[in-house]
Amino acid sequence: MKFKTGKYLLFFCLAGLGLSACKINNDAPAITTTASMNVVNLVVNSSPINYYSNGTRQNSYKLGYSLASGYLTVTAGEQTTAIKDTTYSTIYSADQTLTKNLSYTLLAAGQSSQAVSGIMLTDTAVAVTGKVKARFINASANAPAVDVYFNNASITNTSYKGISKFAMVDTGAVTIKINQAGTNTVIYTKAFTLSSGGVYTFYAYGLYNGSGTNAFSLGEIVNH
């Protein structure tokens, strides 16, 4: 019996050492899941801005008015998003949850003299062969609700911070016309060439009846 007891003690000792060794050598790197974020500065009269995720600046170069960061790789999951000006003052902050492997666009909108808003877009629309998908966001802080025409297709009654659904529009040469909602009053027109199978996001920014760099304008993001 003593012999057997000794064998059992030896076995448990060796097993314990093995477990300890496994713990010591278990140095595999932690898995970090990521998402993609594109930030656009549409804050009228703002200084350049920087984008922070959980307290860490993500963009390499500060973003002047109307400029976009392009898609940046950020940590997925729960996070605090902040937009700061060049004096490191926070002009916008929000808690968000980013899903891994998805792409997002954050439009920083408004005027520097007023509260800045963040318009969050999920950029996951699937392309359709031979067709064009387009959506519209009204990011002009003082603009009325608008109707947007893509040749014969239309997106109607989009107010400030409104995000339309994707619409099927013409391929090739398309004149985008923006009217005050429910009227024939044309606010803006611009010609674009839209590729077959493309997915596009268009956004109005600037000031209604503004001039110079603050003029009402239309921006474009090619999502696919």
Summarize the SSE layout with pairings.
Blueprint: H1 2-25, E1 34-44, E2 49-53, E3 56-57, E4 72-75, E5 77-85, E6 90-98, E7 103-111, E8 117-122, E9 132-138, E10 146-150, E11 153-158, E12 167-169, E13 172-180, E14 186-194, E15 199-205, E16 217-222
Plain-language structure description:
It is a single chain. The protein is mainly beta and 224 residues long. The chain folds into two domains: 31-124, Sandwich (Immunoglobulin-like); 125-224, Sandwich (Immunoglobulin-like). Helices cover 11% and strands 48% of the residues. It contains one helix and 16 strands. The strands form four sheets. A four-stranded mixed sheet has the order 4-1-7-8, with no helix packed on it. A four-stranded antiparallel sheet has the order 3-2-5-6, with no helix packed on it. The protein has a four-stranded mixed sheet with strand order 12-9-15-16, with no helix packed on it. The longest helix has 24 residues, at 2-25.
Salient structural properties:
Immunoglobulin-like; four-stranded mixed sheet; 224 residues; single chain; four-stranded antiparallel sheet; 2 domains; mainly beta
Please report the first level of CATH classification, the CATH class of the largest domain: Mainly Beta
- Arrangement of strands in the largest sheet: 4-1-7-8
The CATH homologous superfamily name of the largest domain equals Carboxypeptidase-like, regulatory domain
Low-confidence stretches: 8-23
Overall tally of domains: 2
Report, as a whole number of angstroms, the end-to-end distance.
75 Å
Q: Helix tally?
A: 1
**CATH architecture verdict of the largest domain:** Sandwich
Q: Let me know the largest β-sheet.
A: 4 strands, mixed
What is the CATH topology assignment of the largest domain?
Immunoglobulin-like
Percent strand: over 45%
What Rg, in angstroms, do the CA atoms define? 26 Å
Mean pLDDT across the residues is 90
The level of helicity is 10-25%
Number of strands: 16
Structural class: mainly beta
* Helix/strand order, N-terminal first: HEEEEEEEEEEEEEEEE
Morphology call = globular
